[in-house]
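Lab notebook, bench 4. Still working through the backlog of constructs that have no structural model yet. Next entry is a single chain of 221 residues. Request: give me the structure tokens for it.
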Amino acid sequence: MFKKVLIAEDHETLNLSVQRTADELKISVVDYVHYCDDAVEKIKKSFRDNNPYDLLITDLYFDADHREQRLKDGREMVKEIREIHPSLKVIFFSSENKSGIIDSLFNNYKINGYVRKGRNDGKDLKNAVSEVFKGNNYLSLEARQDVKKFNSYEFSSFDVTLVSLLSQGILQKNIPTYLVNNNIKPNSLSSIEKRLNVLKEELGITNNEQLIAFCKDLGII
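Model written out:
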């Protein structure tokens, strides 16, 4: 089992829940921080002391307070920590339920586990730590089902760009200008209309406003 774990969580009551999990797994050293900046400093110090952490358990979002922070959320923190400690195992423990965001944590930030806060999250977290220690990635069942559903839609980067532009209030007829200016192809109005119509048909959606709302719910824009 992991010997040295760092927990980054800004809510004390949830910190206690994670602590119980660590105690049950008999992890010998467990350190806690409430801010992303402090987590990075802890990681740096552990390397200077030649005693690095094996695992980071962190929330995704951290509430702003009186203390000025350079790093605003868990994604920024993990990105920076990866440059210091590339082999560190990372588990996110968060209430975020948007499958697009969860999927991006694995694909873009190379995390090892994700546990959604809620009913039975203590059991899920314990399972996550055990599986990650074995070298496996872990995604709690409910989140796994949502991410699988999300991946079945197969949104391309072009799809995301189109819906993002619509969500910013850019009229569909004006999108070709943006695409041309940014060297994005295809960029004809007919190709844009065709792709948006295909998306709406596949998703059972009738208009662009519903498409935008759907993509926001997934967390891809």
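Notes after review: The chain has a mean pLDDT of 88. The longest strand covers residues 89-94. Flag for follow-up if needed.
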